[in-house]
């Protein structure tokens, strides 16, 4: 099965900041004006032709990107809860982008794995892989030949090995029933 991964367009966190959203509420950020243009542009990319379905993260920035692609291509859209981005705090209590950035720096410093005999609240790389692999495998078992997956950099990195996943850029892989995901990528 051919899988075309697309990272969502550029997000706008201002509405979340203005409303004082914390934790998981920060995931409600929509696309910025540039992000909308990016999604409209990628929808015209010929690599998407003959795709049978768009599968999207439930987060608005990804779902909005997928909806634009669906509108422009006429391809059916499914939402998959487990395609959400890495969780900086599994208790959903972080309060700001700055705090999320600090948690992400700790995640990076630890290369995505808790230090021996220590516990953190962020999601480890193996936890990400364990929740996203079954999603891709489901579409393989359903005999799809080509799908579009609109998700987040941390998810796409696991499948492509790309360190810098760009907004609204297609990344293609072949999935043959199983896949050895990439762990830490510098």
TrEMBL record:
Under Gene3D superfamilies, the record lists:
Phosphoglycerate mutase-like
**Which Pfam families does the entry mention?**
His_Phos_1 (PF00300)
One GO CC annotation: cytoplasm
Q: Show the stretches that span the lipid bilayer.
A: none
Chain coiled-coil ranges: none
Extract one GO molecular function annotation from the record: phosphatase activity
Q: Which PANTHER family match?
A: ADENOSYLCOBALAMIN_ALPHA-RIBAZOLE PHOSPHATASE, BROAD-SPECIFICITY PHOSPHATASE YOR283W-RELATED
This one is known as: Phosphoglycerate mutase
């Amino acid at each position: 099965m051919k899988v075309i991964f697309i990272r969502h367009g550029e997000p706008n966190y201002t509405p979340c900041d203005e409303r004082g959203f914390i934790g998981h509420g920060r995931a409600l950020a929509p696309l910025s004006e540039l992000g909308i243009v990016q999604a409209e542009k990628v929808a015209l990319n010929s690599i998407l032709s003959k795709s049978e379905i768009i599968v999207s993260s439930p987060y608005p920035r990804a779902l909005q990107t997928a909806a634009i692609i669906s509108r422009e291509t006429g391809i059916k859209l499914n939402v998959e809860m487990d395609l959400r981005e890495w969780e900086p705090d599994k208790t959903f209590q972080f309060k700001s982008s700055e705090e999320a950035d600090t948690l992400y720096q700790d995640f990076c410093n630890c290369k995505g794995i808790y230090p021996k005999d220590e516990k953190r609240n962020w999601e480890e790389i193996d936890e990400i892989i364990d929740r996203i692999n079954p999603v891709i495998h489901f579409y393989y078992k359903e005999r799809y030949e080509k799908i579009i997956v609109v998700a987040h950099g941390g998810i796409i990195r696991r499948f492509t090995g790309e360190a810098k996943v760009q907004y609204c850029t297609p990344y293609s892989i072949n999935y043959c029933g199983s896949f050895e995901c990439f762990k830490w990528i510098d």
